[in-house]
Amino acid sequence: MIDFKNLHKKFGKLVVLNGLDLNIKEGGIFAILGPNGSGKTTLIKCLLGMVIPNEGTITYKNKSVLRKWDYRNDLNYLPQIANFPPNLTVLELIEMVKNLRPKQSNEQDLIKLFGLTDSLHKKLGNLSGGTKQKVNIVLTFMFDSNLIILDEPTNGLDPIALIHLKELILKEKAKGKTILITTHIMSFVDEMADEIVFILDGKIYFKGSVDALKTQTKNDNLEHAIANLIAKQYA
Ligand SMILES: Nc1ncnc2c1ncn2[C@@H]1O[C@H](COP(=O)(O)OP(=O)(O)OP(=O)(O)O)[C@@H](O)[C@H]1O
């Protein structure tokens, strides 16, 4: 479904992606992991067309995405840091996004699910971090798309919201959607991911199931299995 080939991205002298190859098949939950600054967000932004790679190709459903925009109608994206206009209310933002996207939206159930009814008329600049993240989630899931990209979706969420988020993701997976998630929360990965994609030194260092990683590293604890993977590389 998504194919990255020989992807290179530098920011000045900093090499972030260095000939990265990755194929993501349709359907399931893929956790994009790697140390801070390893290029997870950069990879996602290349797929979104928000960062242009120096070299390499990216195809989505067998069509190149580079400098094309149509494919974006088929995806929902939750950014790591949502820079919402502080003077708009939650409702005004939802209405604005609905006006911008020519797609059927289903925000009412999500607003209820995340307990946002009482916050609809509050200005975004006055919301707590966790409440902003709930708004971010509503904006992401209110459209029906085949590809869902979540950059650190659990940021600031309380346990109840986290349970709702997990249920939401699993519901989308059950519909056959493809879900890419970056996170540093290993318990979340252990519980949710069908496959781990681990980025190190600008390349894919490991791709496989959570169980395969645990077997390969001979470690049943995912946090330790990942640490073991990195330690081996730098040994
Ligand atoms: N627009 C940019 N200009 C310059 N450097 C950038 C830019 N975007 C990212 N970088 C750098 O590229 C590297 C990779 O950043 P990226 O955000 O992709 O990492 P990440 O794996 O998502 O990190 P984290 O786990 O901390 O979120 C970092 O060193 C970052 O500072």
TrEMBL record:
Q: Which UniProt keywords apply?
A: ATP-binding, Nucleotide-binding, Transport
Q: Which GO terms describe its molecular function?
A: ATP binding; ATP hydrolysis activity
Q: Which InterPro entries match?
A: AAA+_ATPase, ABC_transporter-like_ATP-bd, ABC_Transporter_VariousFunc, P-loop_NTPase
Q: Where is the ABC transporter domain?
A: 2-226
Listed CDD domains: ABC_DR_subfamily_A (cd03230)
Return the protein name. Cu-processing system ATP-binding protein
Query: What organism, scientifically named, is this protein from?
Result: Lutibacter maritimus
What are the top taxonomic ranks of the organism? Answer: Bacteria, Pseudomonadati, Bacteroidota, Flavobacteriia, Flavobacteriales
